[in-house]
Amino acid sequence: MNQRDPDILALRGETxxxxxxxxxxxxxxxxxxxRPILKLQNELFIESFINYINKSKSDFYNFTIERKxxxxxxxxxxxxxxxxxxxxxxxxxxxxxxxxxxxxxSSNLNKRMMNxxxxxxxxxxxxxxxxx
Length: 132
Hints:
The protein is mostly helical. The protein has helices at about 5-10, 25-40, 40-55, 65-80, 80-90, 95-105, 105-125, 125-130. The chain has one domain (about 25-130).
């Protein structure tokens, strides 16, 4: 193991969420890898989304809460360029072993990653409103 991996693990912190003997590989990866990275990168995701709002020239700040939630869904699910940028912010903090595990099942893990990220943005909608 190179020095990069232990440094990344130390930076990210502990597993978030419970891991049980019956937990699937995807659930274990989600709680050991994805959740800590999403927590660590939270402020970057918020700033990135605010930048996305500003560049989209949408009237996001005047939308209803329901419309804001839909905007978040659409931004992450349908804007491939933005989605790939978000994925890069997460994948860049994988260890080599985690990356090897990720590429074995990237489709399902990407779904989990994006759903967790969408939930995180939606849960912090107030921060997005306050930063306008």
